[in-house]
Specification:
Layout (H helix, E strand, L loop, with lengths): L1 E4 L3 E6 L2 E6 L9 H10 L1 H21 L4 E9 L2 E3 L10 E3 L4 H11 L2 H22 L5 H10 L10 H11 L1 E5 L5 E8 L2 H29 L5 H20 L12 E5 L12 H26 L6 H5 L6 E5 L14 H6 L9 H17 L6 E7 L4 H16 L4 E5 L6 H6 L13 H10 L1 E3 L2 E4 L17 H8 L6 E5 L6 H10 L2 E7 L5 H12 L6 E6 L1
Helix pairs in contact: 2-9, 4-6, 4-7, 7-8, 12-13, 17-18
């Protein structure tokens, strides 16, 4: 068997016979219902994936060190010395700042010189607190190091320098809009410590500005004692503010900046944010799960709906069977005959299943010819007991319509139909060597009026798993059966198109059964092509969804 594929059609040749299956060039429209059905079919994967992400988020929240952020704001009020010792009447003239100069003050505010001074004041408090927050496994530090790209410090760096780097990383400064207001934020394991350090950093900035002004005055020759005393007093005030972590009690006019908002003790932690972290985990799990579904469907497309079966598949009829629609056929609902009798007068539980059986039965009867027996088969493309149940129920509805039906289990390996219909069989098709033996076995396994059954094998006996059921002798045995109108054969699950090709050579009709979300689309397509290659037999498609 040779398959040739073109954009318009798939061609299968087998000796002198050739068959084509047209390929639709239309793009299949996908509706919201199709998307929802696809997502719903993967609901357990999405739920499991979300659970893993949420557990990881909760683990992160429970192990991450608490951090509090305190904010302090200053406004730049620049002035420059325009006077000198020769002109004592000259004073300070206000100089307007441009945006570049304002941005440069951000770097001054968080410069190493300023932060190092503040660190020296608080290192006896900061180092123990920081050491406690890193003794346990810390997801927060790991996450931030990955995002920022800052790994651990080299071993050659002094321990105190490592803590200073952490101290500096916790400080951030931003400019508020286009104004001259700078906002400093500082994170610390303690709320009180965060507020004190934030106030000390802005106070240190004021001290540096005053110190620079004092140096400028002395260099410029301005030695008026009262001016120098005022500058020195401002320096002392700023230095005290750095030491105690509180803003200066009075305005420092020579600082070129004023504190407009002191850092207060934060009332709640700023990190980790439990609710936001869980919501982020849920969002990431959903995005990750949907991405996996899309990639899987792209690399390994599967049958999702009747629409996807109809596209490119020239079935004579297609029907769907809902999941668990055959629940009334389970052994817990009574004897086999009692369960089958529910199909004669379908109730609410069996109505949809009976309607699907009617469609399959009509397709089989439409192909019945004068030649007896008429050979039809069920070819499942995926394992599952529902396929065997469907074959049994179809055979029963055919018998109820007045036909004499022989149901044969060709699934030698799993014998799924045998376990459902005749679990105590002592012999089966595997043991038959002639038509007479086959008829005798069928006569001893009568299921209902007009319905006879041939098991695959005895479930308790050793068998050859490589037993070939499609030999000419075996198939001739089915053709030679007398007083039978329809032979329904249940085949083993197919994983390739080879078995479908044998079906096309042997049987007069075929019913292909697939599972939504599990059966590969390529397997179904190749199966249909192989079925139609030898004799283009009528084929029906059944989808379990």
């Amino acid at each position: 068997m040779v398959l040739r594929e073109t954009p318009e059609a798939i061609t299968v040749s087998d000796g002198s016979r050739e068959a084509k299956v047209n390929r639709s060039t239309e793009v299949e429209s996908i509706g919201l219902l199709d998307i929802w059905n696809d997502v719903w079919s993967h609901r357990w994967f999405l739920i499991s994936n979300a659970t893993i992400w949420v557990v990881a988020a909760l683990l992160y929240v429970s192990t991450a060190s608490d951090e509090y952020t305190a904010y302090a704001s200053i406004v730049l009020t620049p002035s420059r010395i325009t006077g000198s010792s020769q002109n004592s009447n000259a004073g300070n003239a206000v100089v307007q700042l441009d945006s570049i100069q304002a941005e440069s003050q951000i770097q001054v505010l968080k410069s190493e010189r300023s932060l190092r001074t503040v660190f020296d004041v608080y290192k006896d408090e900061f180092i123990p607190a920081e050491a406690r927050s890193t003794t346990s496994f810390n997801f927060s530090g790991l996450l931030r190091s990955l995002i920022s790209g800052k790994g651990s410090a080299p071993n050659s760096i002094d321990l105190e320098d490592r803590f200073f780097q952490r101290f500096a990383d916790k400080a951030s400064v931003r400019r508020v809009g286009a104004s001259y207001v700078l906002e400093l934020a500082y994170r610390a394991p303690s709320a009180v410590l965060a507020a004190r350090i934030a106030n000390s950093i802005v106070s240190q900035y004021l001290f540096n500005q005053i110190d620079l002004k004092a140096a400028s005055i002395e260099k410029g020759g301005e030695f008026l004692q009262n001016r120098i005393s005022d500058i020195q007093q401002q320096r002392v005030t700023a230095k005290e503010s750095v030491q105690n972590g509180k803003i200066p009690p009075r305005v420092l006019p020579d600082a070129d900046a004023q504190i407009i908002s002191a850092a207060t003790v934060p009332l709640k932690k700023s990190w980790p944010l439990s609710g936001l972290t869980v919501l982020f985990a849920l969002a990431m799990s959903t995005a990750f799960g949907l991405t996996i579904i899309v990639v899987r469907n792209t690399l390994h497309p599967v049958i999702k709906s009747l629409r996807s079966m109809k596209r490119d598949m020239e079935f004579s009829c297609i029907t769907a069977v809902k999941k668990n629609a055959d629940a009334f056929m389970r052994p817990s609902h009574g004897s086999l005959l009692k369960r089958l009798s529910l199909l004669d007068h379908p109730g609410r539980a069996s109505l949809s299943y009976a309607n699907s059986l009617k469609t399959i039965r009509e397709n089989i009867l439409a192909g019945c010819s004068d030649m007896r027996p008429f050979l039809t088969c069920f070819l499942p493309l995926h394992p599952g007991s529902e396929h065997a149940t469907l074959a049994l129920a179809t055979a029963y509805t055919l018998a109820s319509s007045g036909k004499k039906v022989l149901l044969v289990d060709f699934d030698i390996n799993s014998a799924a139909l045998t376990l459902l219909v005749w679990p105590n069989a002592i012999a089966g098709f595997y043991d038959c060597e002639s038509t007479a033996e086959l008829e005798q076995l069928a006569g001893s396994c009568k299921v209902a009026d007009g319905l006879y059954f041939v098991p695959a094998r005895s479930p308790t006996k050793i068998f050859n798993p490589n037993y070939y059921v499609f030999s000419k002798e075996h198939l001739q045995m089915l053709r030679d059966v007398k007083d039978i109108d329809v032979v329904v054969v249940f085949l083993s699950p197919s994983s390739s198109a080879v078995e479908a090709h044998n079906v096309g050579l042997t049987f007069d009709n075929a019913t292909v059964t697939a599972k939504s979300g599990l059966t590969p689309a390529l397997l179904l397509r190749d199966t249909v092509v192989a079925l139609k290659a030898p004799r283009s037999i009528p084929a029906a498609g059944v989808l379990f969804n």
